[in-house]
Design a protein that fits this description.
The protein is α/β, with parallel strands linked by helices and 377 residues long. 33% of the residues lie in helices and 27% in strands. It has helices at residues 14-24, 50-58, 62-66, 99-112, 154-158, 181-187, 239-245, 250-257, 284-287, 296-313, 319-347, 362-365, 373-376; strands at 6-10, 29-34, 45-49, 75-79, 82-87, 94-98, 116-119, 123-126, 131-134, 139-141, 144-147, 163-178, 196-201, 207-213, 218-226, 263-271, 275-276, 279-281. α1 (14-24) runs parallel beside α10 (296-313) and α10 (296-313) runs antiparallel to α11. The two termini are 37 Å apart. Bound molecules: flavin-adenine dinucleotide (FAD) and ligand 5PR.
Length: 377
């Protein structure tokens, strides 16, 4: 009988928790280091698509997730408050929820699988032969190291990967507020307030509100403005400015104005390679992307899962080659998703509506748990 293999993971975000759970469920002994003193996530709401929902099914997290999330009747796009499209996304599985709910469901699945999660443990470096060092000076030898420590990844930077960043001119502030459906309906009775509604205004000023119901009680709103627009990108938000453009959203904008908020500039991060020896990068550490297609966390969880499957199938001697093979197969999907998301962010083409067709849904329809997925392509 082979000895139990050990994986050390940096970062208890969506990528780290999925990698940890999928590895532990395949017999690995897994520890996740999280630099935060408390385990939590920030950033309001999130949209997930078939690719990540399939991974969550496989690790046993969806039962919990479905209980407090929703699939809105349509994804609506408006320009100057005129409806451009109401996409029902037939044949595409998708779900909206709060980030807190997704995070708690993943943490539960990880604990049930026997993963050790260590808050207050900051990783400072990793080596290609499997030594992970934390800020308290402790070094541990592992069979596999996963860098899931986000866009500022210490695993990535200590291993000397080459990083390229591309910024976009726009950015967004995100809030979780009460639904206030009755008040919104009083202001605009004909609107289906259960829809996702992407409210665009380009002229005379680029301001956009992405309205996403997360469940019966909570609403996720994302306010987009160019970084160069000082009032538009200000936090807390400039309530008079936003309500002058979106008067029908006044009840929920008032709630948002009471929250401090943080403006996130859109950016894409790429690395020369996702692996070095027995160390692999997943999630924003390897492939942060613009949120246009709502796939940053989706790709993170998809790649975390397929990494766990590939690493388990390889013997210790084969592991570096198996990780390189995993990148060769999986990376093109993520590269294309990053390219499309960056292009949508740069062109603001989502304002035209009908954007969830053709190539742009490739990632949403990808099936990471299907062992024959690459033969089908
Ligand atoms: P993170 O979430 O950044 O997690 C990294 C973790 O590692 C953190 O807990 C951090 O504290 C920890 N850490 C960092 N450094 C260390 C260290 N040295 N030692 C130990 N721990 C460390 N994606 C979607 O799929 N759908 C969406 O709707 C969506 N909307 C978005 C909207 C906006 C405005 C933005 C900016 C992003 C959006 N994304 C979306 C993308 C998504 O948020 C990210 O891609 C995803 O959270 C990345 O997960 P991660 O686990 O790789 O990284
Ligand atoms: N889609 C989603 C989202 O949260 C954002 C975008 C698109 C679900 C931003 O927060 O285009 O910026 C976007």
């Amino acid at each position: 009988m082979a000895e139990t293999r050990r994986a050390e993971i940096s970062g208890a975000g969506f990528a780290g928790l999925v990698a940890a759970t999928a590895l532990a469920q395949r017999g690995w002994q897994v520890r996740v280091h999280e630099k935060g003193e408390t385990l939590r996530t920030e950033g309001a709401g999130i949209v997930l698509w078939g690719n990540s929902l399939q991974v969550l099914d496989d690790i046993g997290a969806t039962h919990d997730i479905m209980s407090n999330s929703m699939t809105p009747p349509a994804y609506e796009t408006r320009m100057d408050n005129v409806i451009q499209s109401q996409e029902t996304l037939d044949g595409i599985r998708w779900r909206t929820m709060t980030r807190g709910h997704l995070f708690n469901s993943l943490l539960l699945a990880a604990r049930e699988a026997g993963v050790e999660v260590k808050p207050g443990s900051r990783v400072v470096s990793a080596t290609a032969d499997g030594v992970l060092t934390t800020a308290d000076g402790a070094s541990t030898k592992a069979d596999l190291i996963v860098g899931a420590d986000g866009v500022g990844s210490a695993v990535r930077d200590s291993l000397g990967f080459e990083v390229r960043r591309e910024r976009s001119r726009d950015g967004i502030t995100r809030f979780l507020v009460p639904r206030r459906k009755a008040e919104l309906s009083a202001l605009e009775p004909d609107t289906e307030w259960d829809n996702v509604i992407d409210f665009w205004n380009l002229d005379p000023r680029v301001l956009r509100v992405l309205y996403t119901p997360a469940n019966d009680e909570e609403l996720y709103i994302a306010l987009m403005a160019p970084a160069a627009d000082a009032e538009g990108s200000r936090v807390p938000i400039d309530l008079d400015l936003w309500t002058s453009i979106f008067p029908q959203l006044a009840p929920v904008l008032q709630d948002a104005a009471r929250i401090q908020g943080r403006y996130y500039g859109y950016q894409t991060t790429r690395v020369d390679s996702w692996t070095r020896g027995v160390a692999a990068l997943v999630g924003d550490a390897a492939h942060a992307m613009c949120p246009a297609l709502a796939q940053g966390a989706g790709c993170a969880m998809q790649n975390a899962y397929t990494l766990a499957v590939a690493a388990t199938a390889a013997s210790d001697d084969e592991l570096p080659a198996a990780l390189a093979g995993w990148e060769r197969l999986e990376r093109p999907y993520t590269d294309r998703c990053q390219d499309r998301s960056q292009e949508y962010a740069d062109t603001r083409a989502m304002s035209q509506g009908n954007q969830f067709t053709g190539e742009s849904v490739e990632t949403a329809l990808y099936e990471p748990t299907d062992p024959h997925r690459h033969e089908k392509a």
